[in-house]
């Protein structure tokens, strides 16, 4: 099942309403796969690949994949591998602008890192992310259901593919320290994408 134009248009209208009702900020609307919100971290202690520690109560930038934007990019894509490569490419292209955005924030000094939860976590470790499990409480069970529903619309095989992902695509937490993000992708890095080619 590929998403038809009418359904995509309705999703776009809903996404505008959702954006206005949340504190999510665009990094660059229509050109960046992330939306973000600054908040205090409420989960278990995280240790990043560069040995930084994010504790409960620390300030973080919570990252959200802009699912509607990604769905527009995926329109017409029918192959699993192409879909995965498309997502990875747009994450790669979006991280430098996320780093620059964080550098410009008034709250930069108190931020410990970036954190998100996703089912689309395969292949993100070479980009600098660490991965850990999330507790399957009511909130994360709902989020997993919601993300699977979105993937059902985005993915070309729809319902069939999402059912096969039930075991292979668990919900995970992905995170990176502020220091690692800025070192890899910040404005002081003369070639932020160089090590990813």
UniProtKB/TrEMBL annotation:
Short name of any one Pfam family annotated for the protein: YkoP
Domain called YkoP-like: residue spans: 6-185
Stated name of the protein: YkoP-like domain-containing protein
Organism: Brevibacillus centrosporus
Higher taxonomy: Bacteria, Bacillati, Bacillota, Bacilli, Bacillales
């Amino acid at each position: 099942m590929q998403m038809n134009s009418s359904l995509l248009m309705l999703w776009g209208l809903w996404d505008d309403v959702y954006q206005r009702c949340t504190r999510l900020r665009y990094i660059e609307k229509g050109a960046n796969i992330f939306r973000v919100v600054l908040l205090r971290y409420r989960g278990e202690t995280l240790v990043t690949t560069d040995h930084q520690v994010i504790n409960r109560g620390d300030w973080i930038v919570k990252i959200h994949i802009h699912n509607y934007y990604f769905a527009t990019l995926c329109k017409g894509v029918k192959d699993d591998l192409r879909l995965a490569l498309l997502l990875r490419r747009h994450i790669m292209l979006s991280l430098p602008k996320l780093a620059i955005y964080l550098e410009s924030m008034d709250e930069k000094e108190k931020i410990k890192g970036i954190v998100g939860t996703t089912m689309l976590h395969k292949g993100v470790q070479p980009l600098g992310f660490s991965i850990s499990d999330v507790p399957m409480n009511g909130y994360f069970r709902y989020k997993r259901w919601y993300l699977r529903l979105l993937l059902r619309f985005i993915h070309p095989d729809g319902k069939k593919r999402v059912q096969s992902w039930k075991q292979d695509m668990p919900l995970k937490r992905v995170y990176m320290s502020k220091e690692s993000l800025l070192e890899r992708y910040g404005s002081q890095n003369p070639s932020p994408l160089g090590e990813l080619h």
